[in-house]
Amino acid sequence: MSEHRIRFTLNDAPVDVTVPAERLLLDLLRADLGKTGTKDGCSVGVCGLCAVQVDGAPMSACLLLATQVDGARVRTIEGLVSPLQDAFIDEGGFQCGICTSGQLVTADALLRAKPDATDAEINDWQMGNLCRCTGYYGISRAISRARDAK
Amino acid sequence: MRLEHRVTVDAPRAKVWSVLMDLPVAARCVPGTRDIVPEGDGVRGRLDVRVGPIKMSLEGTVAIESRDEAAGTARLRADAEDRRLGGAVRTFVDLAVSGDSPTELRLMSDVAILGRIGELGQPLIARQADKVLAGFAECLRRTVAAR
Amino acid sequence: MRPFDYVEPETLEEALEILAADPDDTVVMAGGTSLVILMKQDLVRPARVLGLRRLGELREIATTDAGLGLGAMATHGALARSRAVRGHAAALAATFAAVATVRIREQATLGGNLAHADPAQDPPVTLLALDGVALARSRFGERRIPLEALFADLFETSLEPGELLVRVDIPPLPAGARATYKKFLPGTLDDYATVSVAAVVATDPAGACVHARIALGGAGPVPLRAHEAERSLVGRRVDDAAIREAAMLAAAATDPIEDLRGSADYKRAMTAVWTERALREVA
After folding, report:
1. For A43, which residue in chain C has the nearest alpha carbon?
2. What was the ipTM of the complex prediction?
3. By CB atoms within 10 Å of each CB, which of A92, A110, A130, C28 scores lowest?
4. Which CATH code for domain C58-170?
């Protein structure tokens, strides 16, 4: 019923849009802003497919109202530049790719906050990003490798 | 799910029985009911119940399926649905009165939750059903005592 | 999701006015992790959502002489990282770090968690064991609510319409007190606890217990203090026998809700096991 003008940066570029109160960030990104790299998975914030960075912190876009990022810096997979991407290729960190955006966005947030994260900290942080294909070892190795490359 | 409630009323058995069989009066004893009107042999009305932040509004009927005054037993049937949330509740309540001043009333309820309301989770529903029935039993006790 | 009116006041006073004007049809949103799910599933249909995200004053975490003050809008992630929280009790920081996943911890708040009142949540258990007191504000004033009195029933608090949780105050721990939080997660690591135990024990130079707190999660319709178990420890050495007795008393104090995580009997039995483990750590 209410509409709100929100202004935020998306992958370092300004966004200025008006949205209805009930618009989810995930739908705004995918449907309105053409950023389909963020995936729609479980819809209850458990699977990690919709992970985005809000002011550097990983969050589930499916649980955020678009109004909640007014004034924030949002980063999606489209705005990621990181040794993680090569590391995932080299270490077999993905197969079907559906969880990969979320894995990368989440891991990137960790390595920016804690460049020296230990393997245990990496696994703990990534615990909320589910993968049906890889069995997780490739993902873990890739993130450790990216950490060591920095 | 099955729930059982017992309440002891300091009143003659005949009085307890007559209140129970007077559905418009007995129905008003269910906490959260409103707009009770007689319909056929039973009553129609609305039951508002809350589970945490979730509000349910069940609309439906209560009727006496069978009764045996001599034995002091009866079976009530309640059918209600929440069209907004999508779901329905069907309950059979087997009543039994025993003793006489004091009179013991036993309610054995079989509550079936259908549709979306059921998705809220059995534990949650069971607690609410339990509270509603406990409130009903207590209110009946007071209503009879006041007559 | 159904349309609704969204308001985001800039001050607490404004928020309280809005809430007081229409408490029945206004739902408060803190982080939104629980509320948005309920709204997406159409189980909660507010006419108005009151967003608290601009109330920076509610995010403060501070240590004073009176102890530790945790703002209701502080996120679990911020609380887990906070030096003030870790300085008060490592177990408290560890409790916030145990919540769900990193994404939830960065969005969900202490106040939202308490107001949601799920007995299997982590923070209430440790906060109960630390004698936490909630501060609620309304347009008419302030109310201090010891946490044990805040949780009324499954998913229900004793907050009155028009009241907002603004802070949780935690008094200083007795000298030398040790605290721990144990979360039993037989399923997945991102889940709520099947059962959980927070224990705080302080002993005198002779080794006799002078202070005991045992709080239980997943053990009933609300997070519980195991008062009898606590009393059984005070005045005696916290040895094997004392621990076993306290664990049994803690289990006896439970009234677990049967669900996917286990039957009532199972949760009761696990309460004894994990109370014992918690007490061994702080004995």
Report:
1. C37
2. 0.97
3. A92
4. 3.30.465.10
